[in-house]
């Protein structure tokens, strides 16, 4: 799983480890961010390319950690009561993550790497559960969120695309 971020670095998330892959340097060998026996997944690289937020079951429960890419020994646990699916705000000053049905936020200083607040719940909502991608996405300003939800027992099984809607409406209004 790869996602390019600002042309600086890529991230590679394997089944158990999060690695940084330099894309502008020769060799392109992944550098493990952590080499433990624990599951470390869903890495998200910060907008400035200095940090990776990821989830790990190091203490028996998924928690969110932030690691400095240049110094992988500089790792901080960010979540307190569990966490998964970390995502950065566009400016890197806030880190979002889920804990069951809660979307949580912590303030972050992208220059120093310091967590500036305790985790606080933004809202509580049922989220869809996916193995390989996030069930939410913050807006550009971080004030709204697109949240995927399970369809449940819906009988709707089709998607209808309407092309040239403006023309159809003009015809109907004549």
Secondary-structure blueprint of this entry?
Layout: E1 9-13, E2 18-22, E3 31-32, E4 40-45, E5 51-56, E6 63-68, E7 71-77, E8 84-88, E9 94-99, E10 102-107, E11 120-124, E12 136-138, E13 145-147, H1 165-173
Antiparallel strand pairs: 1-2, 2-3, 4-5, 5-6, 6-7, 8-9, 9-10, 10-11, 12-13
Our measurement of the CA-to-CA distance between the termini, rounded to an integer number of angstroms, reads 51 Å
Strand content: 35-45%
Secondary structure: number of strands: 13
Reported for the largest beta sheet, the result is: 4 strands, antiparallel
How large, in whole angstroms, is the Cα Rg?
A: 19 Å
Total helical elements: 1
Unreliable stretches covering 5 or more consecutive residues: 1-16
Helix percent reads: under 10%
Overall residue-averaged pLDDT value: 78
Query: In what order do the strands lie side by side in the largest sheet?
Result: 4-5-6-7
**Structure class:** mainly beta
What oligomeric arrangement do these chains adopt?
A: single chain
Order of helices and strands: EEEEEEEEEEEEEH
Shape: elongated
